[in-house]
Amino acid sequence: MLDIRDRITGRFQLTSDGWVSYNDAVRDAFVDEIDYGQLIKQYADPGPQAEAARRYSPSECVGAERRPILGNPDPRYISTSHVERQNLTMRMGMRRFTRLTNAFSKKAENHVNAISLHFMHYNFCRIHSTIRMSPAMRAGVTQKLWEVVDLVRMIEEWEARGRQ
Question: Which of 72, 92, 99, 124 is deepest in the core (most CB within 10 A)?
Answer without folding.
Answer: 124
